[in-house]
Specification:
Structural class: mainly alpha
Radius of gyration: 24 Å
Helix content: 55-70%
Shape: globular
Distance between the termini: 28 Å
Strand order of the largest sheet: 1-2
Strand content: under 5%
Number of helices: 33
């Protein structure tokens, strides 16, 4: 299984390169492209044929059992819903998963393949912007002086714009500088007359990463007079503070509101749970266990997000809960569990360090933030974790194989197609002895086209080079199935199969093929680092032709390839792109290219007489140019969340990222 190389300086590079992705969220109404929603003609209805399974000893409502509006389930049964078959024109399409999760793969493969001929690549000087300026092609970070003297003043001008989207983008970008001087501006933004701008200001307070903003955010979260939307964003923003001191406050809020009914409470709980996932503090796992077992978290969507958050925290203590949910949970919970299992960390190193957990346990007791029952649950599972510290690597392998085996069963026979699709992705992440065979089964599934696509992507994530030829043949021979072939092209890119580059180049330039498919072919070439594709991609970019899907992917591919000759074209895309999707792709590619020479042009666009849409993207670009490497990963919230969950606020938030 291919794993990202997360050295210290590799992480710095990742954070810098992701800047363009994070700043797309600055747009409080529209973010980067996150799936072909406009092409979905109807939302698939989930007509169910319930089969009731008795689960002895299960607390009513726990693990997602359907309890009805009263929250009572006297028979202590769990409804396992069987979803009717529906056409492929729905949210089961693989493109939705890819667009929500592509950031991590774009950045990882970008770091693996770009500038490997630069003698200073990988050094502290390179990442911190102190490389020898006499070296041609070396890219530089933004100095503190440039951040304070150029970027922040320009963004302050953005706050004066009559356009709410420009103000929202400017607030997020200001937060990314992590300069203490911008705090008053963010606080002032929380009183903006437009709700979208207030949301951006709330998120910005979290991105600032300063503990002194916690009382402000807690005040919004706990204010029953505030709108549900603002309280939802406050919960997420507390996670973006990325400080473990925040964890007990979020857990305590959830505990106090278990069983509480009222308009919007479910959405507020979802915001807090997303915040915990973004925060990434594993000490929350035992207490989330308690909430999962409690049964009083009544909102269906909130329970589904709870299991996703357990997965995002990566702790193996979540394994039994997630396996149980995958077996008996409601449909959205089972989909979430299938994704969450792929996020667990099965490495021996993950179980070694318990010092921070023990110290936090002591601080929570002193603050008396959590109930006695919660702390007892923490101690019980902490004892299990202490035991797990001593287990051999072979035992951990058995845990991994157990998860992979259960997901394989789901992939082959589950009644819900989306659960099967998500299982394919998680199998690719977990790996194991039988992972390749399971995914090849899905790839050759003749009756489930979406499963074929998800299995191909799972094989790409798995990183087993022995499947390259199989996928190459699929790409070439699957005629008339261009939506499916796009997944094969991306999988070959993830697998670094340059032997397929010549065939993919032929597909890229064939005008009779669908633009969206050609775009994914170009992106696959970018992922495999095939630099000979750059001239063709630049030609596509310059030709335009109104083919947005193709232009968007070509723009991203040029960023992956580190093609410095395309910088002027990408800057022009930000300024003159016909849609927000294309302008956003230009911003992301500048992030991948680390085009820090764009500071002056972007300042000029924001301060000049440009259109509001151009000012908005210029502010977003300045956001990643001015950020510090410690900025939390803004797109983390979109990764491996079940985008099928029926929560309007959550759907809107995911579209921002």
């Amino acid at each position: 299984m291919m794993k990202p190389k997360m050295t210290f300086f590799g992480m710095i590079a990742l954070l810098v390169a992701l800047g363009g992705v994070w700043t797309a969220a600055a747009n409080a109404q529209q973010g980067q492209y996150r799936g072909p929603e406009d092409e979905v003609r109807r939302r698939p209805t989930e007509e169910s044929t319930p089969s009731r399974e008795t689960v002895p000893g299960l607390i009513p409502g726990a693990l997602g059992g359907r309890t009805g509006s009263s929250g009572r389930n006297p028979t202590q049964t769990v409804t396992r819903r069987r979803v009717a078959r529906y056409d492929q024109e729905g949210y089961r399409r693989w493109e939705f998963w890819w667009e929500h999760n592509k950031d991590r793969y774009l950045v990882h493969w970008n770091l693996e393949n770009r500038n490997d001929d630069d003698p200073q690549y990988g050094t502290p000087e390179y990442y911190l912007g102190k490389a020898d300026r006499s070296q041609p092609g070396v890219m530089f970070g933004v100095s503190d002086r440039e951040r304070v003297e150029k970027i922040i003043p320009a963004l302050k001008l953005g706050l004066l714009s009559p356009d709410e989207k420009v103000r929202a983008a400017s607030l997020i970008a200001l937060a990314k500088t992590r300069e203490a001087s911008v705090l008053p501006l963010l606080k002032r933004g929380t009183a903006d007359p437009k709700p979208g701008v207030r949301n951006a200001a709330i998120l910005g307070l979290g991105l600032l990463g300063d503990l002194q903003v916690v009382p402000n955010l807690l005040g919004i979260l706990q204010n029953t007079e505030a709108s549900t939307e603002h309280r939802f964003y406050a919960g997420i923003a507390l996670g973006y503070v990325r400080r473990s001191e925040v964890t007990p406050y979020l857990i305590s809020f959830l505990q106090r509101h278990l069983g509480v009914q009222g308009q919007g409470i479910g959405d507020i709980q979802i915001g807090v749970l997303i915040g915990l996932g973004v925060l990434g503090d594993k000490s929350a796992v035992p207490l989330l266990h308690l909430i999962a077992r409690d049964g009083r978290l009544r909102d269906d969507a909130a329970r589904a997000v709870l299991y996703q958050t357990l997965g995002k925290l990566g702790d193996l203590l979540a394994l039994p809960v997630l396996l149980r949910v995958l077996e008996v949970g409601d449909i959205q919970e089972r989909r979430s569990a299938a994704l969450a299992l792929g996020e667990l960390d099965f490495s021996p190193e993950a179980e070694k360090d318990l010092t921070s957990l023990l110290s936090r346990r002591a601080s929570w007791t002193k603050k008396d933030l959590l109930t006695k029952v919660a702390l007892q649950e923490f101690d019980r599972l902490l004892s299990s974790k202490l035991q797990a510290r001593r287990v051999a690597e072979a035992r951990l392998k058995r845990y991994r194989d157990k998860a992979s085996h259960r997901l394989t069963e789901v992939l082959k026979s589950d009644a819900d197609g989306q659960v099967r699709n998500f299982a394919a992705i998680s199998i690719g992440k977990i790996g194991g002895d039988s992972a390749k065979d399971a995914l090849l089964f899905g790839l050759n599934s003749g009756y489930a086209r979406s499963l074929q696509a998800f299995s191909a992507l799972g094989l790409g994530i798995l990183g087993d080079q022995s499947v390259n030829e199989v996928l190459r043949k699929k790409l070439i021979s699957t005629y008339g199935e261009e939506d499916l072939r796009g997944a094969f092209a991306l999988a070959l890119g993830l697998l670094q199969d340059r032997a397929s580059a010549n065939e993919m180049m032929k597909l890229l330039v064939r005008p009779s093929l669908q633009p969206e498919f050609r775009g994914y072919v170009g992106l696959g070439l970018g992922l495999m680092g095939y630099r000979d594709a750059a001239p063709t991609l630049v030609s596509i970019l310059r030709s335009g032709g109104g083919q947005e899907d193709l232009l968007r992917s070509a723009t991203l591919a040029l960023g992956l390839l580190g093609d410095r000759d395309s910088i002027d074209d990408l800057r022009l895309m930000i300024q003159e792109g016909k849609t927000s999707t294309l302008r956003g792709a230009g911003v992301i590619s500048q992030g991948l290219l680390r085009d820090f020479g764009a500071v002056e042009p972007m300042v000029a666009l924001l301060a000049g007489k440009s259109k509001s849409t151009v000012k908005e993207m210029a502010a977003a670009a300045l956001g990643y140019l001015g950020e510090r490497e410690e900025i939390p990963v803004f797109s983390r919230a979109a990764q491996d969340y079940n985008y099928r969950i029926h929560s309007q606020l959550m759907q809107e938030f995911l579209r921002l990222l």
